[in-house]
């Protein structure tokens, strides 16, 4: 774990909790944030873990750098998906994304045993 990243994330969370609070009990409740949905980029999530992680928009528009630097894109992708302790949910709006320019990312999901569920 990167202690600097964790410390930075905690400081940001504390600042937000203090800013929104009228009393110390509100600060503590804000820090706990049991019902919070945290939105992060893959890079900002490094070193953190969540029960459920959603990777939204797995398509070539969101992963445009993949064709330029597939190795670095796979690293960022792995950081994002490896934050999931129990569940990983990946969405795409492009039916041909699996066979398009980012097919390598889908191959990583297949290799990890992530099941595909198609909704129409």
Descriptive notes:
The chain is an alpha+beta fold. The protein contains four helices and two strands, in the order ααβαβα. Strand 1, helix 3 and strand 2 (84-90) form a beta-alpha-beta unit. The chain is elongated and about 55 Å long. The relative contact order is 0.13.
Structural class: alpha+beta
Strand tally, please?
A: 2
Helix fraction, binned, reads 25-40%
For the termini, the CA-CA separation is: 39 Å
Secondary structure: elements and pairs:
Layout: H1 3-19, H2 24-32, E1 50-55, H3 70-81, E2 84-90, H4 103-111
Parallel strand pairs: 1-2
Helix pairs in contact: 1-2
Key features?
two-stranded parallel ribbon, 2 strands, 11% strand, 120 residues, alpha+beta
Summarize the structure.
With 120 residues, the protein is α+β, with helices and mostly antiparallel strands. Helix content is 39%, strand content 11%.
């Amino acid at each position: 774990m990167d202690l600097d990243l964790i410390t930075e994330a905690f400081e940001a969370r504390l600042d937000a909790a203090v800013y929104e609070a009228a009393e110390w009990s509100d600060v503590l409740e804000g820090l706990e944030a049991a019902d919070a949905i945290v939105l992060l980029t893959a890079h900002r999530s490094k070193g953190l873990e969540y029960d459920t992680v959603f990777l939204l928009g797995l398509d070539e528009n969101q992963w445009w750098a993949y064709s330029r630097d597939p190795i670095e894109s796979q690293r960022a992708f792995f950081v994002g998906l490896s934050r999931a302790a129990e569940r990983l949910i990946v969405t795409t709006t492009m039916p041909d994304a699996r066979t398009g320019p980012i097919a390598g990312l889908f191959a990583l999901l297949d290799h990890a045993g992530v099941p595909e569920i198609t909704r129409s």
